[in-house]
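wait is this the right file?? whatever heres the structure
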């Protein structure tokens, strides 16, 4: 395993870490034991960082992480998130009373005394501009309930606003071969401020595995079915904002990235890690096999300058015009 600095936190996190949205819910059914087996395999392979949220399975992911990391709290770092259990547009959701309640509930489910990285979970831009929530987080940090804090954002503009606050030590962003906008507009600013970058949806909800066909249908409780047009939340969280059929076609034109790298998924993860500003990628998983496949990205050849230029051109000419939603 390779490790990278997470901004100014002092934490060194595994380059390939894992998100736990999939084992919590909204990605179809996942057996609890299978989820725990996947977490155990990741930890055994050197993964020391996991991202979760209080709304993933209504706390299920946090509970699973408490089981998987019991007795290893000092060496396995957990990032969790808050605000989406309430009305994200209501300023009261970000009041001290509300944030404290969210924090205490997460600590209880995680069975920990402190949260390693506490993130605001994709709040509206206006909330970030107002900034009052950061004063609350500073207070929780002084009390020792939160070690570090950051923001999970939907757009580059939100990220730029968030890092204006000195206490923000990490940003979580959607970034993949289909979503390259942060490279030029956000990454240089995070580098200047030594803010860590957590990359979510590095495989664009599975599109970049190259395994989907236009006729594929997902379970009704899978966001790739119920949110493919943004009916439940930001459309960018599903297939990187691309219409599913368009995404399948575009992925078929990227099969070359797997050459000498085994699979498209491993190549897509390796591409994200080509950028020094990235602290880690946090793909999801639903099985031990998926954990192993994602970790195999560490061992594949990096992209050449020519290949990176080719993928940049592909994004600009073929992809970005199809992305829906603010990003």
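ok assuming it is, sequence goes like this
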């Amino acid at each position: 395993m390779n490790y990278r600095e997470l901004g100014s936190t002092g934490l060194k996190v595994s380059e390939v870490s894992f998100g736990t949205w999939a084992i919590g819910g909204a990605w179809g059914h996942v057996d609890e034991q299978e989820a725990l087996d996947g977490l155990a395999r990741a930890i055994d392979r050197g993964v020391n960082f996991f991202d979760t949220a209080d709304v993933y399975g209504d706390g299920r992911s946090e509970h699973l992480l408490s089981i998987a990391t019991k007795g290893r709290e000092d060496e396995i770092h957990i990032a969790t998130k808050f605000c989406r259990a309430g009305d994200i547009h209501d300023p009261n959701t970000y009041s001290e009373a509300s944030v404290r309640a969210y924090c205490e509930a997460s600590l209880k489910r995680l069975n920990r005394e402190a949260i390693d990285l506490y993130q605001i979970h994709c709040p509206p831009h206006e909330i970030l501009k107002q900034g009052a929530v950061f004063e609350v987080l500073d207070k929780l940090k002084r009390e020792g309930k939160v070690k570090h804090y950051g923001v999970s954002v939907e757009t580059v503009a939100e990220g730029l606003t968030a890092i204006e606050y000195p206490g923000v030590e990490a940003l979580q962003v959607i970034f993949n071969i289909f979503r390259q906008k942060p490279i030029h507009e956000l990454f240089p600013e995070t580098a200047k401020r030594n803010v860590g970058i957590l990359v979510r949806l590095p495989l664009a909800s599975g599109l970049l595995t190259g395994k989907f066909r236009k006729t594929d249908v997902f379970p009704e409780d899978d966001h790739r079915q119920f949110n493919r047009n943004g009916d439940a939340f930001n459309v960018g969280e599903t297939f990187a904002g691309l219409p599913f059929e368009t995404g399948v076609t575009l992925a078929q034109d990227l099969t070359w990235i797997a050459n000498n790298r085994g699979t498209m998924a491993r190549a897509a993860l390796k591409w994200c890690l080509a950028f020094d500003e990235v602290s880690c990628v946090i793909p999801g998983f639903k099985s031990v096999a998926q954990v192993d496949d994602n970790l195999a990205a560490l061992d594949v050849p990096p992209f050449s300058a020519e290949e990176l230029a080719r993928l940049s051109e592909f994004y600009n000419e073929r992809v970005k015009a199809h992305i829906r939603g603010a990003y």
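The chain is about 35% helix and 15% strand. so i think its the right one actually
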